[in-house]
Write a structure and sequence with these properties.
- This protein has helices at 9-13, 20-27, 29-35, 110-127, 142-151, 167-181, 191-196, 238-243, 252-258, 260-266, 277-281, 303-320; strands spanning 3-8, 44-48, 53-60, 67-76, 87-95, 101-106, 134-138, 159-163, 184-187, 200-203, 222-225, 246-249, 275-276, 295-298, 324-327.
- The chain is of the alpha/beta class and 328 residues long.
- It has 2 domains: 3-111 and 304-327, ornithine cyclodeaminase, domain 1; 129-301, Rossmann fold (3-Layer(aba) Sandwich), CATH 3.40.50.720.
- A hairpin with a 6-residue loop joins β3 and β4 (67-76).
């Protein structure tokens, strides 16, 4: 018999957020992924076509982490019409030494949203120009907002442009963020207009048709794509991948299966030219070679990131005595 700590989304929001320690926890896993340290199995996906939905299972064991997270995340993209969020899920954390369940994290997708935004900041830190001050985001959901906020941790952002298929949602996000962040947040009528003046462009949509093509790329631009995490999704056109000075990703295997690399490889792009972000962070591979370079980073999201953020949340919740403990 033992105990397991149960935490709700509200309690988790009280112990982890967009902070420097959380950023470091996510950043540290990338070299481990690239070095093949630990164990990270392929994502398991359950398609629910009748409901325009999917259920994904991700996990990873990382040496040095006390817990192993197993995440079940859901994406049901017709939910907003039902008054429900599109994304959700929960995580379970097991002791890495014994396999005994430590915690059940009913986060409703919060930890996934958090680590995805922090991953975007990590990519920008290592691949965008250090003086990048103008950002653009495609999409106006939770992830779009968090990506903008996370960027402020690593770059001196002074202006943001938002584009979304629904102009009212873009306007709402701009109105929310501008007073809170203290700089100008405006909207654009097209993805092309959003990208035109940006130093950093982040794509956060579930699009199945490319939103960013080679005509939108300009010297010095860095693009982070976080929306494509399934076989049918694509935000970046093959032509854009081909003309960029560098294409990076969190996991080559995942990007080739689920991300922006999939369509590019099918069209003949040489995956040997792809560099994993972990290799850049570890200093084993070059990142941005010059100020005028065009870089693209595809983030499909990994179980290693889930283990990192969940382990941090469990450790902090223990110290804060957050949540409840139940006998098992």
């Amino acid at each position: 018999m033992g105990t397991i700590r149960v935490l709700t989304e509200g309690e988790l929001r009280g112990v982890v957020g967009l902070g420097e320690a959380e950023l470091a926890a996510v950043e540290e896993v990338y070299p481990l992924i690239s070095a093949g340290v630990g164990s990270m199995p392929p994502i398991m996906r359950v398609e629910v076509p009748e409901s325009n939905g999917e259920i994904d299972v991700k996990s990873a064991y990382l040496p040095g982490h006390s817990g192993i997270a197993v995440k079940v995340s859901t994406g049901f993209f017709d939910n907003p019409a039902k008054g429900l969020p599109s994304l959700g899920g929960l995580m379970m954390v097991f002791d890495s030494g014994s396999g005994v369940p430590q915690s059940a994290l009913f986060d409703n997708g919060y930890l996934t949203d958090l680590r995805t935004a922090l991953a975007g900041a990590v990519a920008a830190r290592h691949l965008s120009n250090a003086a990048a001050s103008k950002a653009a985001v495609l999409g106006a959901g939770v992830q779009a907002r968090l990506q903008i906020e996370a960027l402020t941790l690593v770059r001196p952002i002074e202006r943001v442009t938002v584009w979304a298929r629904r102009a009212d949602r873009a306007e709402a996000l701009a109105s929310e963020l501008s007073p809170r962040l203290g700089f100008r947040v405006e909207t654009a009528d097209t993805p092309q207009m959003a990208a035109a003046g940006a130093d950093i462009l982040v794509t956060t949509t579930p699009s199945t048709e490319p939103l960013v093509d080679e005509t939108m790329l300009h010297p010095g631009l860095h693009v982070t794509a976080v929306g494509s995490d399934a076989e049918g999704k694509q935000e970046i056109a093959v032509g854009a991948v081909a003309v960029a000075d560098g294409f990076f990703c969190d996991s080559i295997a995942q990007s080739a299966r689920l991300g922006e690399l999939r369509a590019a490889v099918t069209a003949g792009f040489d995956r040997r030219a792809v560099i994993e972000l972990g290799s850049v962070i570890a200093g084993a591979a070059p990142g941005r070679l010059r100020e005028t370079a065009i870089t693209i980073c595809d983030l499909t999201g990994t179980g290693a990131q889930d283990t990192a953020i969940a382990s941090l949340a469990v450790d902090r919740s223990r110290r804060a005595r957050a949540g409840i403990e139940i006998e098992t």
